[in-house]
Automatic annotation (TrEMBL):
This is CNTP2 protein. It comes from Centropus unirufus. Residues 1-157 form the Laminin G domain. PROSITE patterns: LAM_G_DOMAIN (PS50025). It holds the Pfam family Laminin_G_2. The gene is Cntnap2_0.
């Protein structure tokens, strides 16, 4: 899946201060991860880096606080190329990713609620999300509805 534009939205509530809300990565080094860290929302994104080190695409954005209050929070991520709008509970932050690439090149699997075990040291330290999620939409696909109708293959991480 190679996209120039993405719109991802969901609602969550939790009493945990740490946890991966969703994650996707590609063979070329691209990735997108939304997670809670110290009860703040963190979006990590890389549209690509090169092996020479002259293009470093990792970008991290943090927003919100005290999100482990067991209240519903609404998140919308809108990406057009390198331009990102990250909305948390109607508070919008605009930013531009590092690097020079515009496309997000992911493999076919995006996980919600955690990360698949990859054997990479960085992935083992991240906790799975514990809480509730609803109204999950990914580029026009209602993930919540597809899961309810068993049109997806949900699995436990």
């Amino acid at each position: 899946m190679k996209t120039l534009k993405d719109v991802i939205s969901l609602k969550f509530k939790t009493s945990e201060s740490e946890g991966v809300i969703f994650h996707g990565e590609g063979q070329q080094g691209d990735y997108i991860t939304l997670e809670l860290k110290k009860a703040k929302l963190v979006l990590n994104l890389n549209l690509g880096s090169n092996q020479l080190g002259s293009i470093y695409g990792h970008t991290s954005m943090m927003t919100g606080s005290l999100l482990d209050d067991h209240h519903w929070h609404s998140v919308i991520i809108e990406r057009h190329g390198r331009n990102i709008n990250l909305t948390l509970d109607r508070h919008i932050q605009h930013f531009r990713t590092n690097g020079e690439f515009d496309y997000l090149d992911l493999d076919y699997e995006i996980t919600f609620g955690g990360m698949p075990f990859s054997g990479k040291p960085s992935s083992n330290s991240r906790k799975n999300f514990k809480g509730c999620m609803e109204s999950i939409n990914y580029n026009g696909n209602n993930i919540t509805d597809l899961a309810k109708r068993k049109k997806l293959e949900p699995s436990n991480v």
